[in-house]
Amino acid sequence: MRTRNPVGRHRSKQRLRHRAKGYWGLRSKTLKLVRETVTRAENYATRDRKQRKRHFRALWIVRLNAAVRDQGLTYSRFQRGLKLADVRINRKLLSELAIHDPKAFAEIVELAKAQLLRSAS
């Protein structure tokens, strides 16, 4: 005799359709399209969680470059100066400092500049 599991099968389809809630047209109704769409959406979500980190880092670097150029340095020389001065502040914090506390950021830039001059001579 063939075994059947209609309750479990219905529940798994329900779960799948629930994840497709808000999709347009047959993408939220037809099981084959639901399965394809949900799988693709999950793949994009996984990929984009990784990319979000890259995008934010790039944004912080762009902000820092703009703020440091106002102080008369380039981003790469600024980072070199920070490394020589043994300042360990991440790019996110530096970016926030540049936006919200320009005076403190200017002091950090001056510290990096001084360290660069010291290493050059």
Structural commentary:
The protein has 121 residues and is an all-alpha fold. The protein has one domain (7-120): Orthogonal Bundle (c-terminal domain of poly(a) binding protein), CATH 1.10.1900. The protein is 77% helix and 0% strand. The chain has helices at 6-19, 31-70, 75-84, 91-100, 102-120. Helix 3 crosses helix 5 (102-120) and helix 4 crosses helix 5 (102-120).
Note the topology.
Elements: H1 6-19, H2 31-70, H3 75-84, H4 91-100, H5 102-120
Helix pairs in contact: 1-2, 2-4, 3-5, 4-5
Unreliable sequence segments: none
The named CATH superfamily:
Ribosomal protein L20, C-terminal domain
Silhouette:
rod-shaped
Instruction: Give the CATH class.
Output: Mainly Alpha
What's the number of structural domains? 1
Strand content: under 5%
Let me know the largest β-sheet.
none
Fraction of residues in H or I helices: over 70%
CATH fold category name? c-terminal domain of poly(a) binding protein
Query: What is the alpha-carbon Rg in Å?
Result: 26 Å
Order of helices and strands: HHHHH
* Total helical elements: 5
**Nearest-integer average pLDDT:** 94
The appropriate CATH architecture is Orthogonal Bundle
Number of beta-strand segments:
0
Secondary structure category: mainly alpha
What is the oligomer described by this structure?
Answer: single chain
